[in-house]
Amino acid sequence: MKAMIAIMAVMLMTGCASTTGQNYSQDQVDQIVIGETTKTEVLSTLGEPGLKGTGTLGKNAGIDGYDTYFIYNFSRSSVDAQTFIPFVGMLFAGGNAQTKTLTVYFDSNDIVANVASSESDQDVNAGLLN
Fold first, then answer.
1. What's the rounded Cα separation, in Å, for the pair 31 and 41?
2. For the segment 88-118, what is each residue's pLDDT rounded down to a tens digit?
3. N or C: which end of the chain has fewer CB within 10 A?
């Protein structure tokens, strides 16, 4: 019985988290040099992207002679532990959401033509008192 209570206490204290996509660091992004880095080098540095494509996305980004693009997405969301405590959760519910998107555009020679990235980190306060 004590073990069950201890397990439940740990679960309540840690909250809940969800992660999708492959995380990447700014150091990895900094290794990508427009006009120099090849598609093979990007794959070696970042791995397989979540999305590969060709088409109007490159034209919309103002890239002439583009051929393909890779999109890397990462998101992580977590719920604060107090959210799960009866009555307390109603007052102090909250969590955090992080998202990162990196788009790498390649020209017809498979050389990086452009890189676009965005990142956000938001705290979510859903309780009545926070």
1. 9
2. 777 777 888 899 999 999 988 999 999 999 9
3. N
Domain annotation covers residue 42: yes
Distance CA 86, CA 84 (A): 6
Supply 121's token pair. Answer: 């980190």
Is the overall model pTM greater than 0.85, yes or no? no
Which domain, by its residues, includes 75? 15-125
Residue 40, in any domain of the structure: yes
Q: Left, alpha or beta for 39 (phi > 0: left; psi -120 to 50: alpha)?
A: alpha
Specify the number of domains making up the chain: 1
Check the CA dihedral 53-55-57-59 and report its sign.
Answer: positive
CA distance 64 to 51: 21
The answer to whether residue 1 sits within a structural domain is: no
The residues facing 70 across adjacent strands are 52, 104
- The answer to whether 123 and 96 have CB atoms below 8 angstroms apart is yes
- Count the Cβ atoms, other than its own, within 10 Å of residue 17: 11
**Residue 6 within a domain:** no
